[in-house]
Amino acid sequence: MQSHLLSIIYLIGSVSFIMGMKMMGNAKTARKGNLVGAAGMTLAIVGTIVLHEGEVSPVIYGLILLAILIGTIVGWMTAKKVQMTKMPELVSIFNGMGGACAALISLIEFNHTKHTTHIMEVVEHIIPSDGIAPGTFFCILAGLIIGSISFSGSIIAFLKLNGTLDKPVRLPKYNIINTIFLIAIVAFAAYLFKVETPTLVYALFAMSLLYGVMFVLPIGGADMPVVISLLNSFTGVAAAFGGFLYGNYVMLTGGILVGSAGTLLTIVMCEAMNRPLFNVIFGAFGGGAASAEGTSEKGTIKDISVADTATLMNYSKRVVIVPGYGLAVAQAQHVIHELEMILEERGVEVKYAIHPVAGRMPGHMNVLLAESNVDYGKLVEMDDINPEFPNTDVVLVVGANDVVNPAAKTDPSSPIYGMPILDVENAKHIIINKRSMNAGYAGIDNLLFYNPKNSMLFGDAKKVLTELVAELKTM
Amino acid sequence: MENIQSILADPKQVDHIVQMIYFVILAIFVGIEVIGGVPSILHTPLMSGANAIHGVVIVGAIYVMLNSDPENYVSLALGFLAVLLGTLNVVGGFVVTDRMLEMFKKK
């Protein structure tokens, strides 16, 4: 009886995941959709614990509840407290936790199957046979490999996003090494089918973890959103293998749903950056930093003062602001809104040009500006704003670099060649606010800085913009 | 490999496997359908929401714990860790997604 009830609960859970995801695809219903998914998840978790059949020692119940309690408190606090700029890192870390969870399940089940006959009870309802089904082993090992890769890969992605690992690390011929290594992992897993040495599974675990590191390390920081999205779908697949293992439909639905939706999302993101997924993984970014050095005749860089910027903007008709991640890092999204309002008061038309990958993820910049109450209608997407640049008097680029780098169009040797950019060079004046002359996130030089129409406004975004607002007020 | 043969010899098991394959294929298409035509500004929240949903792997972790031998300390420790990490994935994932989407709602 209880197990039937549990099946129905899993069915409700599965449907809520599908409905939730569907609702999240529409701005109006998105928040509700997330809650629908969360409700389904809660139901599935509570059902799994409460409706379990068979004797379970109270110690185990205690441990489960303790783990859930700690996880809930820590997860909740972290998710609530972390600044929105750090959000991509957070998604990456949470994704890694899910991957690790899948890997640990496999580790435990592997030991169970090797040491005891416990697994037979477990798989009985999937494949009621007398031996250990090969399918079971396959699921355990696949879950272990994919989960581990997702875990260590996510940790590296996290470290890259928060700047600890800021340069791509590449072994010579890393593509070939990685491919061979992956084949070795698969071969080793196949070997584990045969041997009876449980300890070897830890070797497979270690190898998979190492592969995750090697997989993400060579990929440039600018491609991290794509990597996170990909690892996200990996974890989904790992969860689905767990679902196979236990014949558990809610895990299957959740896992496969995220696996396929995540893969599609990854491809869509790649399209937004005009970078085929293959290039992201196998590194057309390769040797990026070196190739940009070659272009010599750069010209000179002009400085501009805050006072001159204020004057220029005050007498403009149309101003476009190009916000980048630097703006978010400097926590300047509120000041920029203030700047926008004061300019609007003076009759200057102000818009924001949002590159699809502005910030660290698609849509990240929209979230950040929405946080500081910027009117949604003022956020203009790249394809709509590009034709407007020739009629724009001043473009103010704050903390963005790669998304306005003309090398994406003109220099085939550039690592970002082919990425659609904001055509700011068509505007009458360009003002770029930067802290220093350091290269952007992709680690490449920007010829826009040397454009005769361009002036550099050096300084911390928040400080400079605050000064700019103060200056405008006196005019 | 005699295992595989024994499974294939049993029509019930073959049926079960085929059913599973049906399920997987349909679920894959549902996943693709669900994402189709989503505006790019929603990509980040959607990725984050999907991230929370694969946290369903925690159900497997709880299952492992419930079936663990209370004397097998390695198993218990790993299981405890798995449930903890799974919870982090689920709770953190949903809460951070909600925070993101809250901002979209203001307007």
Summarize the structure.
The complex is a heterodimer of chains A (475) and B (107). With 475 residues, chain A is α/β, with parallel strands linked by helices.
Give a quick set of tags describing it.
heterodimer, A: 475 residues, alpha/beta, Rossmann fold, 3 domains, six-stranded parallel β-sheet, 19 helices, 60% helix, 7% strand, B: 107 residues, mainly alpha, 2 domains, 5 helices, flat
Protein architecture, described:
- The complex is a heterodimer of chains A (475) and B (107).
- Chain A is of the alpha/beta class.
- Chain A folds into three domains: 1-81; 97-282, no CATH class; 297-473, TPP-binding domain (Rossmann fold).
- Chain A is built from 19 helices and six strands.
- Chain A has helices at 2-24, 30-50, 58-81, 87-115, 118-124, 134-161, 174-194, 200-216, 224-246, 249-272, 277-282, 288-293, 306-314, 325-329, 333-345, 364-371, 382-385, 407-410, 461-473, and strands at residues 318-323, 349-354, 379-381, 394-398, 429-434, 454-458.
- Chain A has a six-stranded parallel β-sheet.
- In chain A, helix 16 links the parallel strand 2 (349-354) and strand 3 (379-381).
- Chain A is elongated, with a radius of gyration of 26 Å.
- Chain A starts with a helix and ends with a helix.
- Chain B is an all-alpha fold.
- Chain B folds into two domains: 1-36; 39-107.
- Chain B has five helices and no strands.
- In chain B, helix 3 (43-53) packs antiparallel against helix 5 (73-105).
- Chains A and B meet through helix 1, helix 2, helix 3, helix 4 and helix 5 of A and helix 1, helix 2, helix 3, helix 4 and helix 5 of B.
